[in-house]
Specification:
The chain is mostly helical and 291 residues long. It has two domains: 189 residues, no CATH class; 83 residues, no CATH class. It is built from eleven helices and no strands. The relative contact order is 0.10. Keywords: Cell membrane, Membrane, Transmembrane, Transmembrane helix. Pfam families: AA_permease_2 (PF13520).
């Protein structure tokens, strides 16, 4: 339908989600601990949590920063991007970190069973007196809606990236086609088919965990893109502090990529195939013409 409609939908879902997080972590957390008190016992890495499990969780947590990538992908269609994009990035990173730390603090302060460990925010909502059951149901609904918003952001991003790559000759010319509303419908259709294919394969494969696989693939693609961006910062910036930041970011991203390669066997194989397909498409085409 268009970028404006997509952004309006995302704004609504994100506003509801932030309000829910405030209700669970702020109001609900305060009420719960007023009646039960604080007894913070963070798990010990190596004893309560195996080191391998902790490192695996770190690689999955990377997907929390999907918002940063979505911001950069939509920058071309953002008014006053030089001011809007940095502000949005700082807000996204700050909110993600704040919610993660607050959630971890509250969850580590109360007894947690296996179900609550799998669904931590719903489990925390259940502990809120009187409204806990209804609040947990609402948290589940918001989890669905915020994932829908995230998928919507992904559609915006992938269609714009494919359009830009086609414009510079890195993808077939067909990806440049747009509808009357300015929507790159070919890009959206192609990647929707790919996503649908993954879901169908998962339906027939009981051993394949789709959520973990998609998180692995996203993280592989994102970390390689972040490495490109970090190296570009080192190469293009004249500011010494920015160059140092780029070097540190590159080292951190290479470390994360190493963890992904060792800890995600299915994602490792599919990511390798994905990169090989991309390289094949690149070398089969004429070199891009930059105007």
């Amino acid at each position: 339908m268009g970028i404006r409609e997509s952004v309006r939908l995302n704004k609504l879902f994100v506003a509801l989600d932030l309000a829910t997080l405030f209700l669970v972590l702020g109001v609900g957390g305060s009420i719960y601990f007023f009646f039960n008190g604080f007894s913070w016992k963070p798990p010990s890495i190596g004893q309560d949590v195996p080191v391998g499990n902790f490192l695996y969780a770190v690689t999955i947590a990377m997907a929390s920063y999907v918002g940063v990538e979505a911001i950069s992908q939509a920058a071309e269609e953002t008014s006053n991007a030089s001011k809007t994009v940095p502000k949005a990035t700082y807000l996204t990173v700050s909110l993600t970190l704040l919610v993660a730390l607050a959630g971890a603090f509250f969850i580590a302060s109360s007894p947690v069973n296996n179900d609550e460990a799998l669904h931590p925010f719903a489990g925390l909502a259940l502990k809120v007196p009187i409204i806990g059951t209804w609040l947990a149901l609402w948290v589940g609904l918001m989890g669905f809606l915020i994932n829908l918003a995230s998928a919507n952001s992904g559609v915006i991003g992938v269609s714009r990236v494919a359009y830009s790559m086609a414009r510079t000759g890195l993808l077939p010319e067909g990806f440049r086609r747009i509808s009357r509303r300015g929507v790159p419908y070919i890009s959206i259709a192609v990647f929707t088919i790919i996503a649908t294919g993954l879901i169908i394969v998962n339906g027939f494969s009981t051993s394949l965990h789709l959520l973990e696989l998609i998180a692995s693939l996203y993280n592989f693609g994102a970390i390689v893109a972040y490495i490109y961006a970090s190296i570009s910062l080192v190469k293009l910036s004249a500011n010494k502090q920015e160059k140092l930041l780029g070097i540190l970011a590159t080292v951190a991203c290479i470390f994360m990529l190493t963890l992904l390669v060792f800890l995600h066997p299915e994602g490792r194989i599919l990511a390798l195939l994905w990169f090989l397909v991309g390289l094949t498409l690149y070398f089969l085409k004429d070199q891009p013409v930059h105007k």
